[in-house]
């Protein structure tokens, strides 16, 4: 059985006290939703201490939205994976399309970030996805394959076993346009096939999340698909009832 995950990417939203309050609200109602689904929140760096403190004693894990490619040293403005791990982070989002698009992240710059994550026991939530032009040109399968090959194929089997993949079509992020469940399933199955060809049957255990305007209303259709193991949630992760409502989207046993 693959781990089902709903992860919230708060991006650059909320002030620290608001983030702590959001975490408290999620924790307060966590027991009203499926306990088998792992919940992760990824607040801005400035909120991590407070959010980790607020979630102590709960099963909700905390992740960061980025980490440095270097271990330590004269890298003004950067935050290392070791610092995040020392605070109590367990996950780190890497390769988000906003970081690729606005901050020039590439497969090349992501590889050392992945290495830093593993060296510090952080599990990467590695994002892939095509933009609108690539989708319209029918290149989505090829683009995602390349993104996976250039980074994930460089991992050892042990490292690979710790990775969560998030498929996030860029045209669906924050746009209100969701991939249809069939579009999501097509790519998720494609990703799993690529991973299986490289790493073998262990790829059947890899959690592959969908991200892109996922909400309580469309989560059930998406999560009903065989290879969709949960969601990486942006906008809807900023309201506790919506975030928890998405968790309710998994098929009932
Ligand atoms: C994201 O950026 O990871 C995301 C999925 O955003 P949204 O849910 O707002 O589309």
TrEMBL record:
Signal peptide: none annotated. The keyword Cytoplasm applies. GO terms for cellular component: cytosol. Substrate binds at residues 9-11, 174, 213, 234-235. The active site is at 96 (electrophile), 168 (proton acceptor). Belongs to the triosephosphate isomerase family. Homodimer. Gene3D superfamilies: Aldolase class I (3.20.20.70). Keywords: Cytoplasm, Gluconeogenesis, Glycolysis, Isomerase. One of its GO terms (biological process) is glycolytic process. Involved in the gluconeogenesis. Catalyzes stereospecifically the conversion of dihydroxyacetone phosphate (DHAP) to D-glyceraldehyde-3-phosphate (G3P). HAMAP family: TIM_B. It catalyses: D-glyceraldehyde 3-phosphate = dihydroxyacetone phosphate. Its EC number is 5.3.1.1. Pathway: Carbohydrate degradation; glycolysis; D-glyceraldehyde 3-phosphate from glycerone phosphate: step 1/1; Carbohydrate biosynthesis; gluconeogenesis. It is found in: Cytoplasm. GO terms for molecular function: triose-phosphate isomerase activity. It is an enzyme of class 5 (isomerase). This is Triosephosphate isomerase. The keyword Protease does not apply.
